[in-house]
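Technical appendix A lists one of the benchmark inputs used to test multi-chain prediction within the project. The record comprises two sequence entries:
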Amino acid sequence: MTLFHNDGHLTDQGLQALVDGLLNDTEGLEAAEHLSFCDDCLLRYTNLLEGAPLLKPETPLKEGVHRRIRMRGLRVAAGRTAKVAAAACLAVGLWGGVTAGATGGRQQDAATEGTSISYQVNNAVNNFTGSLDQFFRQFTGPARSTESKREERYRKQKEDVFTNTPTDSGGKPAG
Amino acid sequence: MTQDQFAGVVEQYERLVYTICYQFTKDHHLAQDLAQDTFLSAYTHLATAPVDNLKPWLARIATNKAKDHLKSAYNRRVCATEDSALPQHRPTLFSRAEQPEDITIARDEARHIAGEIQALKEPYHQVAVLFFLEDRSVEEIAKQLDRPTKTVHTQLYRAKNLLQTKLKPGNTPATNQKGGRKHDLVP
């Protein structure tokens, strides 16, 4: 059986063998590669399929396709949220560096300066994880395990440590 | 196109797409998987879909999905050789002629190699002739044969593997004449 003409196109014999399932793996790959860029042979192939009995999938494809579309939507949204949060962290980190530099002349020990920037970065990260958690909760259902409720209480306690700590106008913990 | 309209497209063309995937893979589960992937891909590219001629468009996506699957299976099957890249330097056919006898042997080997290249079947024949015998670049070959550059690369890689198998030591005239000695005319 000759799969290709000398000009590189698929023969009628080759296309019929494809429709009849008679090509081996390598021949199938070669045929698929050709059909991926040759419009003429693709048209001949689809015309040949019109006269052939088409197979019915074991289960209708609609449900599976919709499930994949939903999952893809979740992945895309999560990816975008992560990018926004990363940009926010970077911006906060840079802003912290700028404000630390703007107060220049004041004597600051290294520990206080580091706490200021790390406090703001920490705050931004906690806000990000909180909003991401909230986002996923919409899709994973209202039921939450005891463990996740404990984690949420812990996270809120951690947030309270920072939000309730008295700060000066520069956003740094006072004292 | 709305979600409901797309659901209608899935129902209308699921047999066609599934049949194409099955004809390439000959496995119902794989065909089901690839068919779903096909419609997912179609959904994400709806903006470029020819809405009045969806059939060949969907057929192409399905064929590409099957191709990708078969290609990864092929690559797993075929062991990559150390020299799997295309040769950067194509040595001249008479690079190590030391004595008149060597020249004769080199010519015989060159003729044998050229003959093996000419004997390759499509889709490898034209790309191999143009690359190995006419010294054309991949881009020139792709343009002349109206094939994607990536496809030409793939076909040259497989052509090289086929030639290496045919030109193994013991299969060339030189090794038949002079126990084991060979010239590296083809990488």
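The CA atoms of residues 86 and 125 of chain A lie 9 Å apart. The helical segments of chain A are 12-19, 25-35, 39-50, 61-102, 110-140, 146-163. Comparable benchmark entries are summarised in Table A2.
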